[in-house]
Amino acid sequence: MAVPLKVGVVGLGQRGLQHLAALVRLQAEGRVHIAALCDVSPANLEEAKLKSFVSDLDVDSLLRTRSFAEVCDPAICQALFLAIPPSLHKREVVQAAGEGIHLMVEKPMSLDIAQAQQMGDAIEAAGIMACCGFQQRYDPRHAAVHAYVQKRRPVFATYAFHASLERHDVKHTDTRTLGGPANRVWAASQAWSGATVVEAGIHPLDLWRYWFGEVDWVQAAYVPRPSAEVVDQADNPYAYSVQFGFEGGLVGNLVLSRVSKVQNLLSDHRIFCTQSQVTIAPDQVSVYAGSTPHASVLWQGTPEEGTYRFAQGFITAIQRQDPVLMKSPFEDGLHSLASVLAANASHEMSGRRIHLEEFLVAGRMRKPKEAGQRT
Question: Of 279, 299, 281, which is closest to residue 289 (Cα–Cα)?
Fold first, then answer.
């Protein structure tokens, strides 16, 4: 068995704690040694808080620090899991890559495409393993869909998700100390999250890229939330309609809403091929085809959140020095990020169609924004 990889987690909010739980499982298997935890909030580093979410964590055996410089040391950590809100990224990725540390960077990696491209350049120059936090690619139902569409011609995809603005539950850090919302729900703030298409819509978009290939163009229209109706800096738009045109000709239609104080949750995900329709539910993937109105089952089982499989794949890729084992390498994830940032840009330009290649080229022609600067 390979020598356990020394790993650290930076950012111990909701997503960081999920990664930490997966790493504890891998540590029990002898795959990793959790060497360090880093967070700007002292409360997130307290033993009682950590163990209330990850009960099997051996707190005494690791470094807990508020200083990124302490964990950005290959003698301490050979790999880092970065779960930082996208608006707060500074040069952590660039610095860690320069030290030769392998990186998992949670999505969205940035709210500025130029900054994300700078990260990608540093990763490529360092020759390290690096991936993005698209754990849904590791869900077996999504793998089943991937295998199915490779043998067909998909022409249209639609994803609808409707939830209340208050449904966000990322509340681990007192964001007021960092200039954020008083209620701690940074995911509801445009300045912090990039709005719902970027913070949440990036997941179905990334799955579409996994299934269908590259995005050619993006066109979007949002329904803004008037300033008089904003509470606790929760200013994300009420609704979003985005079309993604893929290089193979398929069109994806993403429809999201975040109205206030409505607890009914609606979700629907479908793919249309030339001679079949696929519906994707948490516990079943169904196919409608042929002369019968009844569906056949493509996949059925217990839904998986995927974080453990994701971490397992990343760690194995490092230990075997085989990037093919990463289903979401950073460079690939950069195109998912660009697609949703381009949706924001399209809305800001009254629904103008934006070609992704032009958007990426434009990003390379300007200086990256500083952390906390509005996009």
Answer: 279
140 half-sphere exposure, CB direction, 13 A CA radius: 9
Sign for the pseudo-dihedral over CA of 81, 87, 92, 94: positive
3 state SS of 39 = coil
Long-range contacts of 263-270 (CB under 8 A, 24+ apart): 263/164, 263/167, 264/162, 265/162, 265/163, 265/167, 266/160, 266/161, 266/162, 266/163, 267/160, 267/161, 267/162, 268/158, 268/159, 268/160, 268/161, 269/158, 269/159, 269/160, 269/204, 270/157, 270/158, 270/159
Q: Burial code of 227-253, b = ≥16 C-beta within 10 A, e = fewer?
A: eeeeebbbbbbbbbbbbbbbeeebebe
Cα-based angle 343, 347, 348 (whole degrees, multiple of 5):
115
Neighbours of 300 (CB within 10 A): 12
Ordered alpha helix ranges (H), 161-240: 190-193, 196-199, 202-212
- Contact of 20 with 9, CB cutoff 8 Å: yes
Please, what's the b/e burial string for 320-335 (b: 16 or more CB within 10 A of its CB; e: otherwise)?
eeeeebbbbbbebbbe
What pLDDT does 226 receive?
97
Quick check: helix, strand or coil at residue 35?
Answer: strand
Taking the C-alpha atoms of residue 346 and residue 208, their distance in angstroms, rounded to an integer, is: 19
Q: Which residue has the tokens 């005494």?
A: 60
On whether the CB atoms of residues 344 and 375 are closer than 8 A, the answer is: yes
Q: How far is CA 228 from CA 176, 191, 231, 285, 320, in A?
A: 21, 17, 8, 42, 55
Task: Collect the ranges in the chain with pLDDT lower than 70.
Answer: 1, 370-375
DSSP annotation of 165 reads G
Give dist(CA 283, CA 215) in Å, integer: 28
User: Cβ(313)–Cβ(326) under 8 Å?
Assistant: yes
**Residue 185 dihedral angles phi and psi, to the nearest 5°:** -85, 80
Give burial (CB, 10 Å; 0-12/13-18/19+) of 297: exposed
Residues forming beta bridges with residue 245, ordered by sequence position: 217, 251
Q: Which two tokens stand for residue 71?
A: 């964990």
